[in-house]
Amino acid sequence: MKVHTVLGAVLPSDLGRTLTHEHLSMEFNNFYRKPPNQIAHRFQSGFTLENVGYIRQYPYSSKFNIVMNDDHSKHAVYNDVGVFKELGGGTIVENTTIGLNRDINFYKSVSEKTGVHVVAGTGHYIADVQNDTTLDIKTEDLYNLMLTELTEGCIDNPIVKAGFVGEIANFERRAIRAAGEIQAQLGCGISFHPHRDPKAPFEIIRLYTEAGGRVNKAKDTVR
Ligand SMILES: [Zn+2]
To answer: Does the record's keyword annotation contain Signal (predicted)?
Structure first.
């Protein structure tokens, strides 16, 4: 069994200490929320000593705070992943999926510069970040897309294979069913994002297992 990283296949024993849910880069502008009028002026600049407390309280109300794919953010990511490596880190599982603007070339660059393995995911994030075409995709096509990305190469970067499914959000039940079907077929790892409803994790696991997905470690898998 091999793990597909953005720089190629490696043995599981070479992964080292692994963070299973990180985002090195993503488009998050859809999540902007207007701050209360009385404190709106606090959000007009980047971080300052005067406004950092307000941004902590209302993180989605700072346009500066929710940009996670500009040069400033990328510079911080190179630094942080470098520190992760220095402190004994081995691998980062990158959970950015369709709708959040996955950036595989950047993951490759981070991996090359830091020596940390990066595993890219496949699948779709929540409905709020999808366009009309994506929302109309059939279960079969969701499945086929993940199959292609896991076994042949990613649609936006064909020489890189996705290494797992995720993070899959409950934007449509068919996305979860497709994830269950692909897991049954390939035995790959899965990461779900249940969003805010406390009942969602239970419904996700029900739909996923009904579609054939396994919830154990699936040691007898093919990947
Ligand atoms: Zn995430």
So the answer is: no
